[in-house]
């Protein structure tokens, strides 16, 4: 444990001087989803106001670049291509998936789907897009032709969906606390892991390919070995259902958030607390930068002057406090 105690001290010390949050107002309603492009140069946010805002990161500040409009319903989740820094996809309640390109600054493809979409994932190899709707139907789309390749109707509550890092297994979390693992593209059932006593809400793979983490309604985050499918440890510092997770670029840190008024940042290898971020409202989305210890997040904040209105803001934490 000695090697870890030095690492813990070093990281805790770093965040004592890098704990500044900056707030950006980009939307007229609640922000549902934030995410960084793979090169870390851009941050995107999707909102209940039907828009997607794109910011560019300039050393220690974000600048608003463009607002993408076109969806006629809430933008519930955004997802960038894992190797192409200009492409992102969005899932909306308007029964469509859209692909956007920041080079031409517009929507380059629209795919109509059967229901109100809430979750979206892009396979790490870039070939496929999966989108889940409120009726627990998951639609698989060819990312190049934008044709629907398959539809899979599940008879349980499907929450978050994700591929593994090699894109040959498809994972989904469900309302019975299970993780279902299917082969891809065959979509044959490989394993069902009973992960939590409560609803399994979110799932996230670490960049090194060693672990994945799940967050649950039981307020726990569990860390799993990808190859053994064994639970390695449980993070227990939350009191409310864990809604969102993100690993740091090096796989060393795991951020988790809920309705607790703090975002927890723990050391993956031991579970120790490294830092936390105080927030004023429930947090629904967090995303670590792909090459720096910066965390983007969005809360259910209200407008300072009108408490009935959503603030529509997002924040980035981890800037130097000097």
From TrEMBL:
It comes from Ceutorhynchus assimilis (cabbage seed weevil). The keyword rRNA-binding does not apply. Belongs to the THOC3 family. Keywords: Repeat, WD repeat. One of its GO terms (cellular component) is THO complex part of transcription export complex. WD repeats lie at residues 24-65, 68-110, 193-234. One of its GO terms (biological process) is mRNA export from nucleus. Gene3D superfamilies: YVTN repeat-like/Quinoprotein amine dehydrogenase. InterPro entries: Tex1/THOC3, WD40/YVTN_repeat-like_dom_sf, WD40_PAC1, WD40_repeat_dom_sf, WD40_rpt. This is THO complex subunit 3. It comes from the Eukaryota. Transmembrane segments: none annotated.
């Amino acid at each position: 444990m000695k090697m870890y105690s030095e690492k813990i001290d070093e990281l805790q010390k770093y965040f004592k001087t890098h704990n500044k949050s900056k707030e950006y107002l980009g939307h007229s309603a609640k922000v549902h989803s934030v995410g960084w492009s793979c090169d870390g140069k851009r941050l995107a946010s999707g909102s209940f106001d039907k828009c997607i805002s794109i910011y560019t990161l300039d050393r220690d500040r974000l600048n608003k670049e463009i607002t993408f409009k076109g969806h006629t319903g809430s933008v519930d989740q955004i997802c960038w291509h894992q190797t192409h820094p200009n492409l992102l996809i969005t899932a909306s309640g308007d029964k469509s998936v859209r692909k956007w390109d920041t080079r031409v600054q517009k929507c380059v493809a629209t795919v109509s789907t059967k229901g109100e979409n809430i979750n979206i994932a892009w396979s790490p190899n870039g070939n496929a897009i999966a989108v889940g709707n409120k009726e627990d139907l998951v639609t698989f789309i060819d990312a190049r032709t934008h044709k629907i390749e398959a539809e899979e109707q599940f008879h349980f509550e499907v929450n978050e969906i994700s591929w593994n890092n090699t894109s040959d297994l498809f994972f989904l979390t469900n309302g019975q606390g299970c993780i279902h693992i299917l082969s891809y593209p065959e979509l044959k059932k490989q394993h069902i892991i009973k992960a939590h006593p409560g609803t399994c809400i979110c799932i996230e793979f670490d960049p090194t390919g060693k672990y994945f983490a799940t967050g649950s309604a039981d307020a726990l985050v569990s860390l799993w070995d990808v190859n053994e499918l064994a639970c390695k440890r449980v993070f227990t510092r939350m009191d409310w259902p864990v809604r969102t997770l993100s690993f740091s670029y090096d796989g060393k840190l795991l951020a988790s958030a809920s309705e607790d008024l703090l975002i927890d940042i723990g050391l993956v290898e031991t579970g120790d607390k490294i830092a936390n971020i105080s927030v004023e409202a429930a947090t629904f989305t967090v995303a670590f930068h792909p090459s720096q210890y910066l965390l983007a997040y969005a809360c259910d904040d209200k407008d300072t002057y009108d408490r009935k209105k959503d603030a529509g803001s997002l924040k980035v934490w981890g800037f130097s406090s000097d």
